[in-house]
Each structure stands twice: as structure tokens, then as C-alpha cells.
């Protein structure tokens, strides 16, 4: 597909950037981390070059590479990319609420992993607000966020608040 899109759309096209992103995801799933990182970077660089700064596909590329780094425990690199994705999503008109909620949750998880609970909590709260007010989200996304947020509350000694979230999870199942 990449070769066809390069031929028909040109080497610097949205289609080629999308193909690179898909190849990166496939490489990542297969455990080919060096190749995945290379492809994530190529897709991001191309999208930065050809897309408007508030384009949702640019946010997707930032988020994909951020999640890759997050899982590699390269948290400083992940943080910058998540924040870049958030900036694009906040600036863009018609941003996908699920993508925004996911990015916010990921930032919360990143800060929680570092023990930066005061930084993590506002991201969880905002993500929860986005999921609660948007349509089209799956209950599993909400449940996942609630579990993650409840864990933060437990870790910070707020067992009652965590229990309230856990009760809410039970009511959603």
C-alpha cells in the first residue's frame, strides 16, 4: 500500500503518512521496536511537514509515538509528545472526544507512574469529564479510566473516594 500511495499521491502526502503510521503499529505489535520507532517518527515528521498545526492526524502521530515511549519507560520523551498531542487537540476544532480523553488519561498514568499524583489527578478528572459529556464512548473506556483513577486515590490515602469510584464501576457492568 505504501508504494502505491507514494506513486499515486506523492511521497509527501497524508496517505503516505497514514501508511507509515499503520506500518509502525504493525511493527510495534510484532515486537520490532526499532523499526516501529523509526516508522512512528517518519509518520510524525511527514505529518508535521504537510498538515496544519491543529490537524487531528498530527495529534494522533504525537500520541502514537508518546504511547510507544511510555511503554518503553522513556517517560520524558512520552510526556513532551503527549503534551504536544493535547495542544493540538485543544486547539483543533471538532477534536475526537475519545482521543482527547485517551490522551488525558495517558498523561495521568505517566505522572502517576512517576509518583506525581498532584499532576496526574487533574488529567484524570478532565478525561472523566470528557467521557461523561461526549457521545460514542464505550463503557469499557470509562471503566478503565475509573479503575486507574481509583488506584491513584488509593495510593494517595483517599480510600473512601476510591471506593465510590469502584462502586460506580460495579454499577456500569
Describe the structure.
- This protein has 173 residues and is an all-alpha fold.
- It folds into two domains: 1-95, Serine Threonine Protein Phosphatase 5, Tetratricopeptide repeat, CATH 1.25.40.10; 100-173, Serine Threonine Protein Phosphatase 5, Tetratricopeptide repeat (Alpha Horseshoe).
- Helix content is 81%, strand content 0%.
- The chain is built from nine helices and no strands.
- It has helices at residues 2-9, 14-29, 33-50, 56-71, 75-91, 97-113, 117-133, 139-155, 159-172.
- α6 runs antiparallel to α7 (117-133) and α8 runs antiparallel to α9 (159-172).
- The chain is globular.
- The chain starts with a helix and ends with a helix.
- The model has no long low-confidence stretch (mean pLDDT 92).
Mean pLDDT across the residues is 92
| First-last Cα distance | 41 Å
Strand content: under 5%
CATH-scheme architecture of the largest domain: Alpha Horseshoe
What radius of gyration results from the CA coordinates? 18 Å
The biggest sheet, with number of strands, parallel, antiparallel or mixed sense and barrel status, is:
none
CATH superfamily of the largest domain: Tetratricopeptide repeat domain
In DSSP terms (H or I, runs of 4 or more residues), the helix count works out at 9
Give the class-level CATH name of the largest domain: Mainly Alpha
CATH topology annotation of the largest domain: Serine Threonine Protein Phosphatase 5, Tetratricopeptide repeat
Shape: globular
* N-to-C SSE string, H for helix and E for strand: HHHHHHHHH
Poorly predicted runs of 5 or more residues: none
By secondary-structure content and strand pairing, the structural class works out as mainly alpha
* Counted beta strands: 0
Helix content: over 70%
Number of domains: 2
Amino acid at each position: 500500500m505504501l508504494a502505491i500511495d507514494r506513486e499515486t499521491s506523492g511521497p509527501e502526502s497524508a496517505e503516505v503518512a497514514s501508511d507509515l503510521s499503520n506500518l509502525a503499529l504493525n511493527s510495534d505489535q510484532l515486537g520490532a521496536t526499532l523499526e516501529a520507532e523509526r516508522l512512528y517518527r517518519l509518520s510524525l515528521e511527514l505529518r508535521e511537514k504537510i498538515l496544519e498545526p491543529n490537524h487531528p492526524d498530527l495529534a494522533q502521530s504525537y500520541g502514537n509515538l508518546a504511547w510507544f515511549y511510555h511503554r518503553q519507560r522513556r517517560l520524558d520523551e512520552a510526556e513532551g509528545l503527549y503534551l504536544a498531542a493535547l495542544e493540538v487537540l485543544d486547539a483543533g476544532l471538532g477534536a475526537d472526544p475519545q482521543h482527547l480523553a485517551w490522551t488525558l488519561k495517558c498523561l495521568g498514568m505517566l505522572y502517576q507512574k512517576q509518583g506525581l499524583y498532584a499532576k496526574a489527578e487533574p488529567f484524570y478528572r478532565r478525561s472523566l469529564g470528557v467521557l461523561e459529556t461526549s457521545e460514542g464512548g464505550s463503557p469499557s473506556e470509562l471503566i478503565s479510566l475509573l479503575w486507574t483513577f481509583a488506584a491513584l486515590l488509593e495510593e494517595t490515602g483517599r480510600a473512601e473516594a476510591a471506593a465510590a469510584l469502584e462502586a460506580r464501576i460495579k454499577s456500569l457492568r
